[in-house]
Design a protein that fits this description.
- The complex is a heterodimer of chains A (about 110) and B (about 110).
- Chain A is about 0% helix and about 55% strand.
- By secondary structure, chain A is mainly beta.
- Chain A is globular and about 40 Å long.
- With about 110 residues, chain B is an all-beta fold.
- Chain B is about 0% helix and about 55% strand.
- Chain B contains no helices and 11 strands.
- In chain B, strands 2, 4, 5, 9, 10 and 11 form a 6-stranded mixed beta sheet that branches. Chain B has a 5-stranded antiparallel beta sheet with strand order 1-3-8-7-6, with no helix packed on it.
- In chain B, strand 4 and strand 5 form a beta hairpin.
- Classes of the chains: A mainly beta (about 110), B mainly beta (about 110).
- At the A-B interface, strand 5 and strand 10 of A face strand 4, strand 5 and strand 10 of B.
């Protein structure tokens, strides 16, 4: 099992550019979560999906952020336009249906907006 | 509301026991978790405890849960330098999502 796969591992972009972060959950996991980690705010849940449907996007900071899950094996988090304050590590996590024993996290994407 | 609080830093000597504490607010939480994050890596699930338990032991790890006080602790026996990391406490909300604390940085001195 390859685990939760995120790409890219590192992204450096200029302010105003569009950024797309990608996630492949573990096969068979039907819940997917996007988190953002910063020193100031810790780990924040941005959005999560059950069966490819967004359930709670209340953590999405603003309209510049959007997330999609077109199928069970792929999700994207897009920031357009990006700003320096979006610099953070973005984690994707997944879990199987009815599984209460925690999530499996990816290794994260470190985003730097200059 | 849902909130999880942890102290930010703990320093111990190699071979000593480490105790990391956490408080949470949601009394309906059914599961509570401890995750470990090493530098440059994602979060790794260490252990979890169901809310009807008050203790769980797994090798060097002991989790204690005081549901009345909404207090959770993680004890690491015989702490090693490889245990240096950030430790996150998390509670499962009634909507199924995990709410994380700020993380406790454990520094293990040789």
């Amino acid at each position: 099992d390859a685990g939760v796969i995120q790409s890219p591992r590192h992204e450096v972009t200029e302010m105003g550019q569009e950024v797309t972060l990608r996630c492949k959950p573990i096969s068979g996991h039907n819940s997917l979560f996007w988190y953002r980690q910063t020193m100031m705010r810790g780990l924040e849940l941005l959005i999560y999906f059950n069966n490819n449907v967004p359930i709670d996007d209340s953590g999405m900071p603003e309209d510049r952020f959007s997330a999609k899950m077109p199928n069970a094996s792929f999700s994207t988090l897009k920031i357009q336009p990006s700003e320096p304050r979006d610099s953070a590590v973005y984690f994707c996590a997944s879990r199987p249906r009815g599984w209460d024993y925690g999530y499996t996290f990816g290794s994260g994407t470190r985003l730097t907006v200059v | 509301g849902e909130d999880v609080e942890q102290s930010l830093f703990l320093s111990v000597r190699e071979g000593d026991s480490s105790v990391i504490n956490c408080t949470y607010t949601d009394s309906s939480s059914t599961y509570l978790y401890w995750y470990k994050q090493e530098p440059g890596a994602g979060l790794q699930l260490l252990t979890y405890i169901f809310s009807n338990m008050d203790m769980k032991q797994d090798q060097r790890l002991t989790v204690l849960l005081n549901k009345k006080d909404k207090h959770l602790s993680l004890r690491i026996a015989d702490t090693q330098t490889g245990d240096s990391a950030i430790y996150f406490c998390a509670e499962r909300s009634n909507t199924g999502k995990l709410i994380f604390g700020q993380g406790t940085t454990l520094q293990v001195k040789p």
